[in-house]
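agent> Task received from the user: take the single chain below, predict its 3D structure, and emit structure tokens. No templates, no multimer pairing.
agent> Plan: (1) validate residues, (2) run structure prediction, (3) serialize to tokens, (4) report one or two observations.
agent> Step 1 OK, no nonstandard residues flagged.
tool_call: predict_structure(input=
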Amino acid sequence: MKRLDHYWYTRSPWLLLLTPLSLLFRVIVGARRLAYRVGIKRSTRVSLPVIVVGNITVGGTGKTPLVVWLAGYLREKGYAPGIVSRGYGGTASHWPQQVRADSDPAVVGDEAVLLAATTGCPMAVAPDRVAAAQALVDQGGCDVIISDDGLQHYALQRDIEIAVIDGVRRFGSGFLLPAGPLREPLKRLQQVDLVVVNGLGDGDEHRMTLQQGDAHNLQDPDRICALQGFRSQRVHAVAGIGHPERFFRALQQAGLQLDSHTFPDHHAFRAEDIRFGDGRSVIMTEKDAVKCRHFATQDDWYVPVEASLSGKFREQLDALLDTRLSHRG
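)
tool_result: status=success, residues=329
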């Protein structure tokens, strides 16, 4: 049976049956945001500036690579960034949780461990992002906070908003949940500071490209192999991310022959999930790799990606940093 998100992007006429629920969801979303605007619901401003990187759709858009890029760019500019996120998939008994490269992804979430490992930034996670941000403030060591996701988490006030769009899937049916992938109406994009498109963009949208790196062995981190080295064999490609087809397509464009295996986003991998009994190499995303290291074999590899953004995006971001962060009261 196909998942509901398949129909969002094929514009199935069956979605019309769900439009009444989408209209109700739109009313709820609007009422919730209004409640924050007029003070019925509390919105907190922490003592450090906050940059939110999020999206208005359900599913993967390339947000995590942009957060990694942004953390590095802020460091180049002389800032000391910290990162907060929800810790999705984490099973911690109390929040917030500090995250390190060696944290257990089952406790704090897979994306959080990936971000901590790739950026080296101080990081805290909690379903309440205000609590996570305050934990970073109390910990010290950073002067600006990046919120990974949280565009709709209005309890935490922000100084800069960056929205990320999937350039291939865009907005699917154009409906809000559950008849479509939208968390908020499309007009929300007119209110953010920067719109980044993972792929080809339109108008004022800024294009982000993701470059695949060489494959890294999970068992031996010093063992690295160019993707071209796998062209002589058929490999197993594994992905438990929001948009696995993008990962599979990139591997195919690199010339690899795949047997692809899709898992739910944030899937809690077990050894048997990546054992196929034929001795062929297994290639996965970096986010999935953080959950597979402790049972990995010499045949298991992950492929990191690196975001690249235009000079125009950097110029507009610099202007925002100057006006919103440097002069923040």
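agent> Step 4: summary for the user.
The CA atoms of residues 142 and 310 lie 26 Å apart.
agent> Done.
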